[in-house]
Amino acid sequence: MITVHADVVGSLLRPPGLLKARERLAAGAMALPAFKAVEDAAVDGAVALQESAGLEVVTDGEMRRLSFQSQMTEAVEGFADHDLDAFLWGDWHGGEDAGDWSRERPAGLGITGKLKPRRHLAAEEFTYLRARTRRIPKVCLPSPSLWANFWDAERAGGTYASLDAFLADVVDILKGELAELERLGASYVQLDAPHYTAFLDPALRSFYEQRGWHGTQWLERGIALDNAVMEGFPNLTFGFHLCRGNQASRWLVSGDYQPLAKPIFRRIRAQRLFLEFDDERSGGFEPLREVPEDKTVVLGLVTTKSARRERPRELIARIKEAARYLPLERLALSPQCGFATSVLGNRITPADQKRKLRTVVRVAGEVWG
Q1: What are 191-217's pLDDT values in tens digits?
Q2: How far is residue 178's CA from residue 23's CA, in Å, rounded to a whole number?
Q3: pTM more than 0.90
Q4: Cross-strand partners of 137
Q5: Quick one: which of 289, 286, 294 has its CA closest to 269?
Q6: What are phi and psi of 243, to 5 degrees?
């Protein structure tokens, strides 16, 4: 099992050259081989950044993704045509710095046919990353019940009779992906599951209940689906990331983890829980009482949403506070979320990003040696 005390969540800021190349590729002004060279160079830069910060775990920065979850819709047939807005809808809050932002759920989201993989989701990401680092390569995949965001019973037609049938195929696709990643030598996979915190917001909870499950079903069935994905891979260490929304320095919901703590912390198969605690919206550490002995909590204390300079002394004090509820050796440190959940990225600079990653490593070294 992976036991490092300095970790990362996944995404990093996309370089301007990569963003421009994406635009040119979409406009037909750039050939795919040339684009892939730009994409590869961006991954090389992501690896170099993380290694120079001193991290033992590295990702590819999700440089090949439009959004943290977009590899599913790019690699699998059966989803209706969509653009970036498919991953951005909701009532986002940004405070004085980023401002509020509201986007309607695109009317065209839905399922147009039976899901059928046309390629692997993350095999290219992993094999390229594995060849360019001697650190621990981590791959991030979306939680299966997150795909209820795309479910529309009317548009599904006769393809899927229910949400359960649709998500069963999502589980099978993700399990197939894990089997391929394991075959290729992967040892560390993270499931991203920000939708669970929607239960902290009445409007978002109502949306999910309209998909077909009600009340506690969303927690019970969602956890069962996540566990079904992870079952049968004893050689993989699993992380499980729970944030409250992260898009262009904005967030979706507020509230502590207490309503989710018992069902998720106690029952999820993942060994490492990535939890955000970077501001007052996150509540206190009391829910950590519910974490069983076989799990580590990776404390997301370093914000990715702003350029705020975290002081090591303050972070160490917060880690010691969390250790009142969980032994210090079962704690670790990371940024609170990715730096660029989609190609939009958060409102920080590459220098801010670099400094924050180094702060994570420095503080982890001081606390755990």
Answers
A1: 999 889 988 888 888 888 888 888 788
A2: 31
A3: yes
A4: 58
A5: 294
A6: -115, -175
